[in-house]
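User: Here's a protein and a ligand (zinc ion). What would the complex look like?
Assistant: Let me lay out the input and then the predicted complex.
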Amino acid sequence: MTEISAQNRQPAKGTSSLAARVLELVASGEASSRAELAALLGAAPSTISLTVGQLVERGLIAEEGTQSSTGGRPRKVLRLGGTDEFAVAADLGGRHARIGVVSPGGRLDRVSTVPFVIADGPEEALPRLAETLEALAEERGRDRLCGVGLSLPGPVDIDSGAVVLPSRMPGWNRFPVAAWLEERFGVPAAVDNDANSMAMGEHTVRSAEHRQSIMVKIGSAIGAGVIVDGHLYRGATGAAGDITHIRIDGAADIPCSCGKTGCLETVASGAALVRILRERGVDVDSLEDVVRLVTDADPEATRAVRRAGEHLGQVLAANVNFFNPDAVYLGGILSTLEPFVAAVRSRLYDSCHPLVTEHLTIERASLGPDAGVVGAGQFALQRAIAHSLRNIGAERFSLPAHRTP
Ligand SMILES: [Zn+2]
C-alpha cells in the first residue's frame, strides 16, 4: 500500500482547525466570501483573511473575479482548489461507464460513455478503465491531477474503500477499489455508491439553491442519497437513504433480492417493471424496452410505470414529511419518463403536509446522466484537499481567534 492509501482511509473530520472549517464551508457552498466566513465562524475578519491567504497560497482555495451584488461594492468570490487542479472520475454501470474530468465547483469536461463490463470483476475491468482515465488526465495535464473518483452500483464501505456484499457485482466483494486506484494513480481516490455520488453531484451544482435534498436513482434498482445542510448524510452504518427495502402494502408475497418479501424494489424498480409487464404478456426483455414503450405512449406500459411512480412517491412521502428537504431530485433511466415523474410528484403532494411541500422542488436531476460522475469527482476533490491538509500539518493553520496579524 502507498503512503497515501494508508493514511487516507481516515475521514477528514479529525482535522479540526480553523483552516479545515474554512475549507469545509467553501466546499459545501455555505460560504463564498471572507465576510460570510467571518460571520459563520464568529472569527475576526483579520483572522479569516490570514487563513484564507494561506490557503490561497497553498492552492487549496482560489479567490477570483467579482460577484456583482445589487448595486453594492463588488467582492471576491472563494471556491475550492487552485485554478486548474482537477479529478478524473467514472460512474460505473453494468455494461458502461460514464467518465470525465471534474473541476472544483462541479464543472465537467471531456465527458463520454465507454464500455465497462462490471461482471468481468475488478481485476480485469479496473485496469482497462484506469488506462482510459489516465489518458484523460494526460490530455489535461497529468501534474495537475489531484484525485480519482468512482461511483459504484453497489454498497460501499467508505472507511475501507471497498464494495461490500454487492448483489449484482460478481467478484467485487471486499475488493479494495480505493486503495487500488491510489496505488495506480498516486493520488487520493474516493469511491461511493451511485445514489450518494449523484446526490453529491447535483448538490454541487445547485448548492446555492438547495441545502437539504434527497436524490433518488431509479434504474434497474432503487437507491437514494441524502444531503443535510450541504453535506452527504451517511447515517450510523452508511445505509442512509436505502429506501428500496421498505415494505409496500399489497406487495406482501413478492420475493425481493434481500431475502424478504414485498419491498419497494419488487414493485417500483426497473427490474420489477420488466417482470410485471412480462407477466401481463407484454413483449419486453429489458428496462430499455419498457422506456421505449412508454415513450411511444403504450397504455399498458404507461399504466405500469405510473403505478411504480405512485409506490415510490408513497415511500418518499414518509421520508419527505420527516426530513423536510427543499428538493427531491430524480435520476436514473425511469426519471426520463414524464408519467413516472408526474406520479411521484402527485403522490408527494397528496401525502405530505402543505408546510413540507410549499416550497418543495420535485424534478429530474439537472445533470441528468452526468450527476454520478460529477459527484464522484467532487468526492475525489474533497478527499484530495483533506489529504493535502494532513500533509502540510493542519496545525500550521490553526490560528487562535484572538490573534491578529
Ligand atoms: Zn428487499
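Summary: Residues 245, 256, 258, 260, 263, 265 surround zinc ion (CB under 6 Å).
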